[in-house]
Amino acid sequence: MTEQYEIFRDPYRMLILLATLVSEQKGEKALQFDNVPYFENDTFLIQNEKFVYKKIPTEITWFQFLGRDIACNKDYTREEYNQMFVDCLASLYNIR
């Protein structure tokens, strides 16, 4: 069994922001916490019950609803989470 680490409130909020922006790009009116839309590029993958950051193999999972029983396979600092999500946001909008 893989170890799971609790994530901070700030990275959880950033994950919601990322999922919301993906929903908007897909033309959805609002993020559905029980049905996160699928999106994948070279930097990250997000889908229902899973987020994967590809540059440093990282997986954040949740149970049924985004935020419920949320855990990460690695233990990161807030700064490391911040950098990861900034990188994901930049890749979503092709900003380099």
Report the portion of residues in β strands: 15-25%
Give the strand line-up of the largest sheet.
Answer: 1-2-3-4-5
Low-pLDDT ranges: none
* Major sheet details: 5 strands, antiparallel
The strand count comes to 5
Counting DSSP H or I runs of 4 or more residues, the number of helices is 2
Mean of all residue-level pLDDT scores: 88
Through-space gap between termini? 36 Å
Task: Kindly state the percentage of residues in helix.
Answer: 25-40%
Number of domains: 1
What is the overall silhouette? globular
**Succession of helices and strands:** HEEEEEH
- Helix-and-strand structural type: alpha+beta
Radius of gyration: 12 Å
Structural descriptors:
five-stranded antiparallel β-sheet; globular; alpha+beta; 33% helix; 17% strand; 5 strands
Could you please describe the fold and organization of this structure?
With 96 residues, the protein is α+β, with helices and mostly antiparallel strands. The chain has one domain. The chain is built from 2 helices and 5 strands; from the N terminus they run αβββββα. The chain has a 5-stranded antiparallel β-sheet, with helices on one face. Strand 2 and strand 3 form a beta hairpin. Helix 1 packs parallel to helix 2. The chain is globular and about 35 Å long. The model has no long low-confidence stretch (mean pLDDT 88).
